């Protein structure tokens, strides 16, 4: 099938066939990571700008590796060291980059909807969302889907629980959409104080009050990071109590389950060390999938080749 999208703002308009096209291509890229000649020429002559307004390790590094492996010219544009820190507007920065002849921008911003705003400013440039506010993180969900699919195969009817701080997570909505579209039965659990008021808009099967029971019944246990920087808001009594009621310990995970986390992990809070490092953990595989998933996204949005 041919691919017509040049932007990746979110996953809301993706259907199952879109995810299947992505998975086929991403799996090929992931297999190529083990080959000596993994650097390709698909995006030779294309220039990609990584424009990150928030700190990032995994997302930014894996995008940069993906871009280089596909042969693109890569520019890392840090807002703190650019004219933005001198008072230049994002609009003027965007137009400056466009005038330089760039082909794509990978963007992370703390305000929800900024990738779409940038897309309106630069209709001829491919915009890829590296995370916007607490709204969306599409490539994280795609790499998660890749890891789960390769381990489990079909996700039809598979029970999945997403546990933790859904309210402040840019990952939760994207993950729920991706896995639900591929057939998983997705539930949320966590303290009520960390659940959004519009939980129904996430399209999940249910909210589970008892997190421990939900984890034991799930084939996929997806743990969201507890954002320590928000704990001064008193959203739950303590990290120790959070772990006791909502964190994943060894006894909470069934033998055939997989454990996932978008990182960085808080050991002893949302996840025990023997779970994070245990045989059920896909956490390091998710990191590896990140490069392949972003290679696939870049190829689809910038290459537009028939699959």
From TrEMBL:
Coiled coil: none annotated. GO terms for molecular function: amino acid binding; aspartate carbamoyltransferase activity. GO terms for biological process: 'de novo' pyrimidine nucleobase biosynthetic process; 'de novo' UMP biosynthetic process; amino acid metabolic process. Gene3D superfamilies: Aspartate/ornithine carbamoyltransferase. It catalyses: carbamoyl phosphate + L-aspartate = N-carbamoyl-L-aspartate + phosphate + H(+). Carbamoyl phosphate binds at residues 58-59, 108, 137, 140, 263-264. L-aspartate binds at residues 86, 170, 225. Its EC number is 2.1.3.2. PROSITE patterns: CARBAMOYLTRANSFERASE. The keyword Transferase applies. Keywords: Pyrimidine biosynthesis, Transferase. The keyword Nucleus does not apply. One of its GO terms (cellular component) is cytosol. Catalyzes the condensation of carbamoyl phosphate and aspartate to form carbamoyl aspartate and inorganic phosphate, the committed step in the de novo pyrimidine nucleotide biosynthesis pathway. Heterododecamer (2C3:3R2) of six catalytic PyrB chains organized as two trimers (C3), and six regulatory PyrI chains organized as three dimers (R2). Belongs to the aspartate/ornithine carbamoyltransferase superfamily. ATCase family. NCBIfam families: asp_carb_tr (TIGR00670), PRK00856.1 (NF002032). This is Aspartate carbamoyltransferase. It comes from Dethiosulfovibrio peptidovorans DSM 11002.
